[in-house]
Design brief:
By secondary structure, the protein is α/β, with parallel strands linked by helices. It contains 10 helices and 8 strands.
Length: 300
């Protein structure tokens, strides 16, 4: 991370904590909900299958930047499917950098060739070993592994949503993140139970076991891009929601924290690690602050 970016984020954090402001710093633009997969845990794919035009996404980026957002994510659907004429995902990332966003990340399912060194991080969904990943996402594991090996940059971070199917595969994903050259780290979430996927949600006891496994893997040197200090809050769902420092933009509609905020009762069952980490950070939790500094400087 550049020193100028670090100083900007440090200033934002201090101001937010001291003045209790609810200004956003992290924003997500949904470029399309079209996806080539039908994952068992996903409730937001192929609802419209519309590719939002470049001019619209430009406008949405400008709106987020003017609000104070400096960490930008491009999400789908599947982001690598996005096209507008001759323009693809590279043009979106480049445009975001030109507008002044300090960190620009992309989320992908990894089934397309990975040639995007312009992105700071490519968060690639890997949901376990071959058997359990394929049980969730179809026969894609080997394709994804081939694409990772062939990637043109080492800016990949695994992104695992832990659920009833893959809870026993945390160690496998940690070892893959540790041992693959183009992968920097792995970031975990617990499954957030949309109404049509409630059966995949973990119990409190299962979450505790998962956090024990992640902690053990951290101690064994696995590159985990999460904050251990937040685990007790995640296990009991006792972190404040929503996260006012995060916003999502989809087809001109702005949502605080995420698209799930409108689903009754879902915030109270939130499994997003970053929501716990950010809300605790901006409450001034000292352990979270120190651990985040160490983690972000290491992996971004």
């Amino acid at each position: 991370m550049k020193l100028s970016s670090f100083l900007y984020f440090a200033g934002f954090g201090i101001e937010t904590i001291l003045l209790r402001k609810k200004k956003p710093i992290l924003g997500t633009v949904i470029v399309t909900d079209k996806c080539n997969l039908q994952c068992k845990h996903c409730s937001v794919n192929n609802i419209t299958a519309i590719m939002h035009p470049f001019a619209q996404i430009q406008q949405e980026m400008r709106q987020l930047y003017d609000m104070g957002v400096r960490i930008l994510f491009f999400c789908g659907g599947e982001t690598f499917l996005w096209r507008d004429g001759e323009m693809g995902l590279r043009e979106l990332v480049t445009e975001a950098k030109k507008k002044g966003f300090l960190i620009v990340n992309v989320v992908t399912n990894g089934t397309f060739p990975i040639d995007l060194p312009e992105a700071d991080l490519i968060l690639l969904s890997l949901d376990g070993d071959r058997e359990r990943h394929n049980a969730i996402r179809g026969d894609t594991y080997d394709t994804i592994m081939t694409n990772i090996v062939s990637a043109t940059s080492d800016n990949i971070c695994f992104y695992m949503a832990v659920n009833q199917i893959n809870q026993g595969a945390i160690r496998d994903v940690c070892l893959a993140a540790r041992d693959m050259t183009n992968v920097r780290a792995v970031s975990f979430n617990f499954h957030t139970p949309y109404p049509d996927t409630k059966d995949l949600a973990l119990s409190r006891e299962q979450k505790a076991v998962c956090c024990e496994t992640i902690t053990q893997m951290m101690e064994e040197g696995a590159p985990v891009f999460n904050l251990k200090s937040a685990f007790p809050y995640l296990i009991d769902n006792r972190f404040p929601t929503p996260c006012y420092q995060c916003v999502v933009m989809e087809n001109g509609k702005l949502s605080t924290c995420g698209r799930c905020i409108e689903v009754p009762g879902l915030c109270e069952q939130c499994g997003y690690f970053f929501v716990a980490e950010y809300t605790l950070l901006f409450q001034g939790n000292c352990r979270i602050i120190l651990e985040m500094l160490k983690t972000y400087l290491k992996y971004i």
